[in-house]
Structures are given as structure tokens and as C-alpha cells.
Amino acid sequence: MTDWKRICPLTDIPVLGSRVVKSEKHGDIAIFRTSDDEVFAVHDKCPHKGGPLSQGIVHGKIVTCPLHSWKIELDTGNAVAPDVGCSKSFAARVEGGEVFLSV
């Protein structure tokens, strides 16, 4: 069973930006908005050295970690080769202009 939680209006997340949601169970989750208004959610911690992905640069469906420039795929949380690692991804969606997150 999927438990969807309303997070905020889509307009509260800047285009090519993010918003951090606190979760007792999962820690900080970064919700990203692409230039096409798609939303993706990943654990706000780079698999390399734990950098805050929410402070990274979004390009396409990838975020570049601000610490050491690792690139993380927003839809899977996987690091882009040649780097190896993964940040947990979470289901996110936009419905009626509102962002929902499944944890």
C-alpha cells in the first residue's frame, strides 16, 4: 500500500531547484523540480561523502553534488558512471498543482 503525503504547491519548489522534507524514518529527503515541472525525490545525501544534494545544480534529470561534483540521476538515485553509489529514491508526483511524496 502506498502512502502519499501532500508536501506543498509545485510553485513552492523553484524550477531547477529543490525543497528538503524532514522524515523521522528516512532523514532528510530532497524533492527536485526539473525545467519540465517533473518532480523527483532522493535522500538528501550524496553517496560519495554525504554532501547535501539539495544544494546541488539540477540539469535535466540529474543533480550535481556541490561538494565533489558527483552526478546523481534523480529518477533512480544512482551515481552516473564512472562514479558508483546510490542515494535512496522515493516516489513523487504532481497532481492538481500539488506535490505528493510516498515514503
From TrEMBL:
InterPro entries: Rieske-like_NirD (IPR012748), Rieske_2Fe-2S (IPR017941), Rieske_2Fe-2S_sf (IPR036922). Residues 5-101 form the Rieske domain. CDD domains: Rieske_NirD_small_Bacillus. PROSITE patterns: RIESKE (PS51296). Transmembrane segments: none annotated. It comes from the Bacteria. Keywords: 2Fe-2S, Iron, Iron-sulfur, Metal-binding, Nitrate assimilation, Oxidoreductase. NCBIfam families: nirD_assim_sml (TIGR02378). This is Nitrite reductase small subunit NirD.
